[in-house]
Every structure is written in C-alpha cells, then in structure tokens.
Amino acid sequence: HVQSLARIEEQTRILTSGQSRQPVEDKGSAQARMLARAINRLAAERDRFQDDVGQQVTQASQAIERERRRLAALMAELQQSVVVCNLDGRILLYNNRARLQYQALAQTAALADGAGVIGLGRSIHAVFDPSLVGHALDTLRRRIERGAANASAQFVTTTRNGQLLRVQVAAVLDPSEEGAAASAPASGQAAVLSGFVLLLDNLTHDFEQQSLRDQLLHAMTEGSRSALANLQTALDML
Predict the structure, then answer these.
(1) Could you give the CA distance from residue 155 to residue 95 in angstroms, rounded to a whole number?
(2) Looking at the DSSP assignment, which residues form a beta bridge with residue 173?
(3) Cα 97–87–110 angle (5° rounding)?
(4) This model's pTM is above 0.90
(5) Which long-range contacts (CB under 8 A, 24 or more apart) does 67-76 make?
(6) Which residues contact 140 (CB under 8 A, 6 or more apart)?
(7) What does the alpha-carbon distance between residue 63 and residue 45 come to, in Å, rounded to a whole number?
(8) Separation between Cα atoms, residue 18 and residue 8, nearest integer Å
(9) pLDDT in tens, the chain (238 residues)
(10) How far apart are the C-alpha atoms of 70 and 221, rounded to whole Å?
(11) CA dist 212 to 76, 108, 159, 208, 218, Å?
(12) How many helices (H) and strands (E) does the chain have?
C-alpha cells in the first residue's frame, strides 16, 4: 500500500511537470486505483484544455498575420505616406511611400538609406518632436472622450533641411473596446486609444509655388503702379 502511494506520487509529479503525458499506473489497492483513475481524468482534462488553448492561439496568430498582410498590401497601393505606431511611438507598420519619403528627409549621409530614420520597432520621435506627437495624441483622446467616431488631429512642422511637412494623426482604437465605442453615447464609456496612424504630406513644393505667385503678383503690382499714377493724372486733367 505504501509503495503504491509512493509510485502514484512520483508519477503524478512527472505528469504535472509536463515532462510526460504518460498516465498514472492503475495498480495496487482499491483506494490506490481509484486515486490513480481520478488523477488520470484530471490530467486528461488538463491536456485537452491545453491543446484547445494552443489551437486557439495558433488560429488567432494566423488570423492576425493574414490581416497584417492585407493591411500591408492595401498600404502599399496608397500614394500617401502611412506609418502605424503604438502609443509609445514605436513603428509597427509602414508603406514603401513612407520609407522613400523619410529617406529623402534623412539628415546625414549615414542615414541616406532611411534605415536610421524609419523601420519596424524604431521610434517615430526620432523624426518628429515628441511634444508635437504628444499634443496630437492629447487632442485625439479629448475627441474620443466626446464620442467622435473617427478622431483625428494634425500638425505642421519643418525639418532641419527646410522641408515643410503636414502630418495628419488618426486614432487606432483597442479592438476589445469597439463595442464600447459604439455604445459610448448610451453608456458614457469612451473607447481606448491603443495607437495612431501618421499620414505625411510634404508641403514644401506647394509653399514654394505659393510664395512664387505672391512675389510675381507683388512685382506686377509695383510695376503697374507708375502707369496707374499717370492714368490718374490724365483723368484729373480731363
């Protein structure tokens, strides 16, 4: 009887450690056999639960990867620079347009390939002033709290090489809170901000064109001032 209990205890310890799924031997006295059967039933339930959880995790991972690939394919077709970040500013996803545009904004020759500026896991704060990004996120949170369905914000900044940029910031909500977002007006609960999307527009060329138009208009006005004065004089004489 003592040896049976010692054997059951040893086999149970191996079974619970995960080293083996070999069931406990059903030997010994009636009480020992009943104990072994109960342990085996619990172990079988535990194994089925672990297998089910593992299968669900695998399916969820595959679904996430499929959605990630779809999103990457969609972003690749966009003509605008798109960068997806988490709340800490770590880059999670970006399209080729963004890579090329940030490459053009690289400050030094060492970063000419864009590798030091943008990449998975890198911080967007290396590109934009953290205070500008933080202010945009605060604006998003306030608009989400007021029940905005598609909260967004924007800011305009310049780079060290004189580029004028307009950055639109869109909210990414926690998927687990989408239902709460839909019922926010009724329940008073706001959705949770889990990340943000940056849409980058380079306004340098447009600004230069506008400045050139203003200069030409000013020059034309100044050039016609004397002619207008002579015309005014002639009208006064008439």
Answers:
(1) 21
(2) 193
(3) 45
(4) no
(5) 68/93
(6) 151, 152, 153, 169, 171, 193, 196
(7) 27
(8) 16
(9) 677 778 888 888 887 877 777 887 777 778 878 888 888 888 888 888 888 888 889 888 888 888 777 777 776 667 778 888 999 989 988 888 888 777 766 554 444 444 456 788 888 888 888 899 999 999 999 988 888 778 889 888 887 767 778 889 999 887 654 444 444 444 445 578 888 999 888 777 665 566 666 666 666 666 666 777 777 777 888 7
(10) 55
(11) 34, 29, 21, 6, 10
(12) 7, 5
CB 3 within 8 A of CB 20: no
Joined together, the tokens standing for residue 74 give 């969609």
| Furthest-apart CA atoms within the chain: distance in Å | 135
Residues in the chain: 238
What is the rounded CA–CA span in Å between residue 66 and residue 79?
23
Q: At what angle do helices 2-16 and 30-77 cross, to 10 degrees?
A: 0
- Residue 128 in tokens: 């934009």
From CA 169, how far away is CA 182, in angstroms rounded? 21
